[in-house]
Amino acid sequence: MRSRAVIIGTGSALPSRVMTNRDLEALVDTSDEWIRTRTGILERRIASEGENNSDLATRAALNALEMAGVKPDEIDLIIVATLTPDMPMPSVACLVQKNIGAFRAGVLDISVTCSGFIYGLSIADKFIQADRKLKILVIGSEVLSRRVNWQDRTTCVLFGDGAGAAVLAGTREDRGILSTHLHGDGRLWELLAIRGLGTAVPADEEMLSRGWQYIQMQGKDVFKHAVKALEAVTWEAMDAVGWKTDALDMVFCHQANMRILDFVRERLGLSEDKLFINIHKYGNTSAASIPIALDEANRGGRLFAGANVLMMAFGGGFTWGSLAMRW
Ligand code: COA
């Protein structure tokens, strides 16, 4: 049998500062009722001053390593999925490597927005299929609160900060990652973007006055594309491994909006207990959303050996993807 990649430890880290919908009522013209009914979000976590992406990523990584019983110097590759790195150079993966002392590891940041953790797992899977002895740390980590315009009610109510991580190793057993499907469509980039702070646009007064340092989104259009892509990529994964809905034990969909999650659950015909939900506590944490959910489910005893697990995500770019695995 070929080698498969299995997750042998998970971890997460969330800032201690909680921002409730009521807190947002003091900042913008919104209401707890509007946010709850349109998004399902009740509160989100916000990084404190001086608390950076790499700090959250490091805490999540250490938690995952501890659960896996793997020492930092056993890690061969660190992949960090993020759209909010501490700085353009070095990567968050480099900073995590330094913080945890994983000096044998290669270091790689990937920029795939909310689908980043699935892309990261997929890359790790390919490495481990080629060499069963590798141990790979995949992290999704975001400090979106620093890329949100706190005067724009159409976006600031949606996002939050946090990090999640998984340690992957190889096995010859009949479990682990069974299939991955990755997609993108760059033609639609303008519907969800941070246009400034890269090298294309000067960081000047004009850029700041346009709000291009912040996330800008055409929410309704994004919603329509998200549900269509998520449904298609879900069935793509199910068909690839030959699963029908009743084969699923736990589903982790990117926590972007409760209405998107309800849509996915209805289209799959899935019972409520099988779709993991934590959007009410953390909002949309982009690349961190699935690994935080995975860690909560794992530590909460909701995953068992042999469980059929499906993950799917959609995000800016656009990017989307799915992953099927036997736990
Ligand atoms: N509080 C109160 N009112 C708000 C508001 C807020 N936070 N944000 C928007 N509104 C207003 C709008 O201004 C609009 O008012 P108008 O009718 O007077 O113009 C009204 O509410 C409806 O806005 P609309 O954008 O049509 O709401 P919606 O039902 O589409 O919900 C989103 C908005 C953002 C929740 C929804 O479009 C969505 O979830 N989109 C997908 C977002 C997403 O998941 N992005 C990330 C993908 S990874």
Key features of this structure:
13 strands; 4-stranded mixed β-sheet; binds coenzyme A; alpha/beta; 327 residues; 11 helices; 24% strand; Peroxisomal Thiolase, Chain A, domain 1
Brief overview:
The chain is α/β, with parallel strands linked by helices and about 325 residues long. About 35% of the residues lie in helices and about 25% in strands. Coenzyme A (COA) binds next to helix 2, helix 6, helix 8 and strand 12.
Report the count of strand segments: 13
* Strand arrangement in the largest pleated sheet: 1-7-6-4-5
Helix-strand topology string: EEHHEHEHEHEHEEEHEHEHHHEE
- Tell me the structural class: alpha/beta
* Percent of residues in helices: 25-40%
Number of structurally distinct domains = 2
Low-confidence stretches: none
Number of helices: 11
Radius of gyration: 19 Å
**Cα separation of the termini:** 17 Å
The average pLDDT score comes to 97
Please, what is the oligomeric state?
single chain
Listed once per kind, the bound small molecules are: coenzyme A
**CATH level 3 topology of the largest domain:** Peroxisomal Thiolase, Chain A, domain 1
Strand content: 15-25%
Shape: globular
The major pleated sheet works out as: 5 strands, mixed
- Named CATH architecture of the largest domain: 3-Layer(aba) Sandwich
Topology:
Blueprint: E1 4-13, E2 18-20, H1 21-25, H2 32-39, E3 43-45, H3 53-68, E4 77-81, H4 92-100, E5 106-110, H5 116-130, E6 136-143, H6 153-156, E7 161-171, E8 176-184, E9 192-193, H7 205-210, E10 216-217, H8 219-241, E11 250-253, H9 258-268, H10 279-282, H11 289-299, E12 308-315, E13 319-326
Parallel strand pairs: 4-5, 4-6, 11-12
Antiparallel strand pairs: 1-7, 2-3, 6-7, 8-13, 9-10, 12-13
Coenzyme A (COA) binds next to helix 2, helix 6, helix 8 and strand 12.
